[in-house]
Amino acid sequence: MKKKLIYILTFVAGLGFTACEDALDTEDLSTDNLDYLCSNPTDARKMIDHVYSYFCEDSYTSRMSTNWMQNTDVEIGWIDTENAEKGDRRSVWGLNMIEFSDIQTCWDNTLKAIDFANQCIVGIEAADMYKSGNKDMKQLHGEAYCLRAYWYWLFCNFWADVPFATTPTTKDDMHNDPRTDKNIIYTHLIKDLIKVYPEMQTAKDVSVERMNKDFALGMIMRLAMFRAGYSMQADGTMKLCDKTSEEYQVTYTDINGNSVTATTPADYYQLAINFGKVLEAQTSHTLDTNFKAIFDNEINGCNPGDGDVLFEMGFTPNSGGDIGWCHGLSVDGGSRGAGKTYTNLTPYYACSFDKDDQRRDVTCTNYKYITDDTQAAQDGEGIQPAKWCRMDLSVTNVASKGTGINWPVMRYADALLLMSEAYFQIGDMANAKTYLKKIRERAFTNSANKTAKVDTYVDGLTTADFMKAIRNERAWEFGGENIRKFDLIRWNYYSDAIVDLIEWTLKVAKNYNQLDDDLLQDKTLPIVDMGIAPRLYYSYTAGKVVFENDYNTYIDRSISPYKEATTLSDDVIKAAGVGASIPGTYYVTLTDKFISEEKQADGTSFTPKKFGLSEKVAASFFGLTSEYVNGKTFNFKPAELRAKVTPYVFPIPKTRIASSGGVLSNDGYAIRNK
Prior knowledge:
By secondary structure, this protein is α+β, with helices and mostly antiparallel strands. It has a 3-stranded antiparallel sheet, with no helix packed on it. The protein starts with 6 loop residues before the first helix and ends in a 15-residue tail after the last helix.
């Protein structure tokens, strides 16, 4: 495996800085004589690495790539009503963004990263070595464009229409720019990447830890799909772009040598397909049959340049990266530090997997580590994003924060699924199915029923259910990689996804708690095996949680030994000692967690018992679901909620609005807290 590229440390050492924070002070770097600062590959690399260094900041590692990507039907941070009203990450999870300092930091750092990318572009294009065709300078030039494109893509997904600039800030032009239609921005970025990808080197040549030709092509595809998709408008509605003027058009030469102009959503789907074909033709990526290997590679190194990753953020231990600290399988403490995930996965999602799908047990698990060799089971609120675990680090002298675990920004599987989706959108079902099969082929490579899970399943899909299959496949493939939120936005399926989750939760809870249609408990109602586990049962052996059933296996709790099963606390496990066995049968609740008994105004129980969805279900989607019964239990109205727009757009920081002199505002965009 290739050694990780330590571009952050290289840049810091090269300029004499002592910490990542110092490197991020753009005031220390002159914007004059950019052609001199970027005159050769060594110096230009230092400039480019400064843009990469913004990925080392909390604004990216523990905000924009991780802890701000909830709440969806896949990734979630469970909160109560009180937390939904706080101005911190919890209000973000509840879709009730109240301004706090992190929002301004992320806004500012995004603009700084973009501005410095603009400086690099101007400097490199003015350099003689670039003009003479030096391949390293051309690669760096492409990286600068890719970095700008990626940061703008993030910017638009968090703040919708944003200020857009393609030249550096100077004393004569401070870029006090107004919001620009995100579809103009996407169009411009697509043109940029089409222009520069031919001069870039492949991931196999320069590593997946550098933005490369493969990623540039993948990013063209991604931007085209967002350009073709829905987005939040200034009037607070979700719409497709119907503008046709030149700034909304991309003219390109397709893979057959024809000049093509993209204007409509269908045109942009075709553009995505075209550059997907270029990606296939000009690179050599394959899908590793071992799904877990992708993430194991990221924990202790990086992925190969011809594997399942187009680009991943490269970090080094004790220097950068918060995967394993605030995201990934939780570890309370031990020889490799501690980290608690702020992102969990929903029971709805975990239970949606086919039991033969190798992705399920790589992605989801219901235990954490208390310390080395000592686990503890987690309930339905604690389903872990298990692709990364700091216990798998090969080093032991690592700080809790700054694990050095890499983060996948775009995988080849993403490009293949975008191809499938784009082909479907233009009505080519044959090719849409071919690309979907490529993904499922890997997912079920070890299944005895592989033909049924791949060929039979995909061949049986119709135009009526294919888009649902795409939504499901992207969930199963990318769970915990935190791209679901942005997918739901471009599909205009965010509100529907939330309602789907709540409806499923209510359906399961009604069955296993024997509730009638009025949510009154009736012990004479039969319990139906839905292929979903209301509880997970386990034994505790040699410090390990050994589950007796999985997410899709129902166990009748009225029979022994399950009716005698109890819970097992962390304190009991700690008292037993590292690696101990604790006799007995234990359980954690999986779906029961999200149903609660309603109370009358005087605090007494209804007779017979009446139930409803728990406060946490409602509060976790507070921006969409803001009605309660008796202040606690959610009064669920699915049709009304499906018709509402999910308020995902962040407010622009008030200080930045004030300093714009009226150029910027938080008017519109369904922003709840202006």
